[in-house]
Amino acid sequence: MPDSLSEQLQSDMQCEGLLECFHGLKPLDRECFSVLVESDEPMTIDAVAEAVDRERSTAYRSVQRLLQTGFITKEQINYDQGGYYHVYSPTDPEKITSEMQRMLNDWYAKMGQLIQEFEEKYDHTESAQASS
């Protein structure tokens, strides 16, 4: 993925790249997310690991990153005899996009503030040098 903003704007980015761009997620995270989205039912870690052909612990770390970002949800299923297991489902896309839009607005406001600070700092310096 490109590092600078100008490189990002010139790259051929796809919508799934937003997972990486906004949250620093990895390609495996994107793959796990896609598996969960394509599934008709919530999935266990074992099922996700099998679908992405990775070890359970590797899939678990990826699913944890997706949980932390809010892209997926976790539900506890209880056994009748006692004990439980967890299943994972994608979060409603509208909720995800609303959060990404909020983050983008916050970023835009912060960048605007930094640009203004840059202009004030360096415009002031040039004015002081010109009057000397």
Poorly predicted parts: none
Q: What is the count of helical runs?
A: 6
Total number of beta strands = 2
Range of helix content: 55-70%
Instruction: Estimate the strand proportion.
Output: 5-15%
Shape summary: elongated
Please summarize the sheet with the most strands.
2 strands, antiparallel
Quickly give the structural class: mainly alpha
Radius of gyration in whole Å, from Cα? Answer: 22 Å
Give the terminus-to-terminus CA distance.
46 Å
Order of strands, widest sheet: 1-2
Indicate the mean pLDDT.
Answer: 83
- Helix-strand sequence: HHHHHEEH
Domain Transcription regulator TrmB N-terminal: 19-94
Organism: Halorubrum pallidum
Protein name: Helix-turn-helix domain-containing protein
Structure overview:
The protein has 132 residues and is mostly helical. The chain is 65% helix and 11% strand. The chain is built from 6 helices and 2 strands. It has helices at residues 5-10, 17-23, 27-38, 45-52, 56-69, 93-131; strands spanning 72-78, 84-90. A two-stranded antiparallel ribbon has the order 1-2. α4 packs across α5. The longest helix is centred in the C-terminal third of the chain and has 39 residues, at 93-131. The chain is elongated, with a radius of gyration of 22 Å. The N and C termini lie far apart (46 Å).
